[in-house]
Backbone:
């Protein structure tokens, strides 16, 4: 699909209004890749993160269609005013990408209650809170698209990431529950479950653990890691009119890892 043709999917035919997207954790990694695809396809994109320097660097790369909001989403009390400010500034929110998340690698018995609660708060509670506030605006128009970022940790067991696994399993459940309740009101809700996606950090981690690297590639039928752009393309599709009859889906983008042996 040509870029100009694809961009039409994200522009209102009635008033030539650009779609407005919010991407949490959009300053780097998968969030940046999603924001990049959106801005390339004529979507006004607000990226949210905790690090203003990182957000500003991302904005410089993404151009004039990118806007930044600095906020720590783990502080749930700040979320309603954050969304209110975005709506007041940009008019409405058409697309929400719940990408922001944190992880912690520890032996099961070493994970404290505080450790577990911190992961759940950022990866699950914040997703619920920001979705609730965005949906209040989407309901005014009986339209909208929400995409949650899940993980292979919700598809099968991974050691030493108990809190992360719990949070992402909950994301799959909240995606289906939201889709069931909100789809009759014009709001589609889906999730993307990335497999092993290339980054300097993941490459370094795998190169330092050859046994883990061997197992990753052995159970991935396509025999390679994905690229951040693969997640961006999946999000772009799920946010488009082409996915207008898709809701409640958790889409693995993993080279077959979740079905490999």
Residues:
């Amino acid at each position: 699909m040509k870029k100009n043709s694809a961009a039409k999917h994200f522009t209102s035919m009635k008033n030539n209004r650009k779609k407005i997207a919010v991407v949490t954790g959009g300053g780097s990694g998968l969030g940046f890749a999603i924001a990049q695809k959106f801005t390339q396809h004529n979507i006004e994109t607000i990226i949210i993160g905790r690090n203003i320097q990182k957000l500003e660097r991302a904005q410089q790369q993404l151009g004039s269609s990118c806007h930044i909001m600095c906020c720590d989403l783990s502080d749930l009390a700040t979320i309603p005013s954050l969304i209110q400010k975005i709506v007041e500034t940009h008019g409405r929110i058409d697309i929400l990408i719940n990408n922001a998340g944190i992880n912690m690698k520890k032996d099961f018995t070493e994970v404290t209650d505080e450790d577990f609660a911190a992961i759940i708060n950022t990866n699950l509670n914040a997703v619920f809170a920001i979705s609730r506030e965005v949906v209040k605006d989407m309901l005014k128009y009986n339209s909208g698209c929400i995409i949650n970022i899940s993980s292979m940790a919700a598809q099968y067991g991974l050691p030493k990431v108990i809190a992360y696994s719990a949070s992402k399993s909950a994301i799959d459940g909240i995606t289906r529950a939201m889709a069931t309740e909100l789809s009759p009101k014009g709001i589609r809700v889906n999730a993307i479950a990335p497999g092993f996606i290339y980054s300097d950090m993941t490459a370094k981690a795998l190169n330092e653990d050859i046994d883990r690297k061997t197992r990753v590639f052995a159970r991935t039928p396509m025999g390679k890691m994905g690229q951040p752009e693969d997640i961006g393309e999946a999000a772009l599709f799920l946010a488009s009119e082409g996915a207008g009859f898709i809701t409640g889906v958790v889409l693995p983008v993993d080279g077959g890892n979740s079905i490999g042996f």
